[in-house]
Amino acid sequence: MIKFFLILYNVLFALSLPFIVFIVLFSSKYRKELFYKLHERFAIYNSLSKNTKKTLWIHCASLGEVRAVDPILDELKDKYFIVLTSITKSGREYAQKLQKADFVALLPLDIYPVMCKAFDIIKPDMLILVETELWATMLYTAAYKNVKIITINGRMSAKSFRTYKKLKFFWNKFTRLINVVIARNKDDAARFIFLTDGKSKVIVSGNIKYDRKFMLTLKREEFFLNKEDFVFTAGSTREGEEEIIADVYNKISCGYSNVKFFLAPRHISRISNIIKILEDKHIKYSLFSSCDFKNKFVLVDIFGKLQSIYSVSDICYVGGSIVKKGGQNPIEPASYGKPVLFGKNMDNFKTESEILVKYGGALIVEDVNDLTEKLENFINDKVFLKDVGQNALKVVASQKGALAFTIEKIKESLDA
Q: In order of start, what are the domains of the chain with their CATH numbers?
């Protein structure tokens, strides 16, 4: 039965490729990625020198997942030969920049001849999938070639689970091939148990993103900030949230001359749309790329700067959460000891957001007025600001340990 579904999946995948290419060509967001390292999509590699070490193939979706496995690479790179793949250009570039994997490439197309070729070249002893990277052909090929499969930091949001649940008749033929799932929390674990029909070993580790080392790499002066400036950063915002942030700025700036806003959208391709929003609301802004921060509102139009901006902020809002996009990672600003604000739609980071709120490291905001009110409370009460930030930092410290647990289970699975 699994071969029938594999053939059907491959046929549908192949037939959909022309439509995917057509859509990408007309997408400003993804067009630049279409021809980037295109040969790697077909498992055509320039070189892949190997030695006698066991080989781990670690696959990440994009930049966020590559960042998450950074400390894992530190622990494994000396003992194993590591191949790291990513779906996106940004993920691959960041992985290459880290220089912690022996070989970096884009994920090959999930079509059997291509994926089979990739496995024959890489010859992995273990395939490590990060979070929710489920590819039918990849899973089948790994199992067919007796490669151990392990999912780490396993995550499945309620929204994703609804889709997988509807297609369980298909997906459980492939997900049950995973040997071990190391899930972030009990909810994620339960969803993987359901999807694999209990055929995979599922254990809970916590979130390895708590174990990332967040370094304060920049000083406030490098952003032309004064000691008196109160910095609010809205990170990874999505469509519908920039209007809210702009309205909050107009309300706040009337009464507080020392407040400075940084807005970093999730997708840089939307910068022109956001500029129109700011201009329609008569907001004078500076582009981050101009290195001229004379205005009190700075629009971040460069990718990869959000971590540094979080580190010099007083308070941070995590985007994708007032609108229904599942939210972004609240651990990042919390790790810098910053009070965190987010909306109620945090399904992608449900456990993390709930813990932060429960222990006073984060507050939930509902709309423009609520966000404005809570921001004013922080501006006017420096003790409250410090306490909430310290609570956020304590939450992050209390949740560490998933990294060591995950490394231990990877080694156990390899030796089993």
A: 33-206+401-415 (3.40.50.11720), 220-398 (3.40.50.2000)
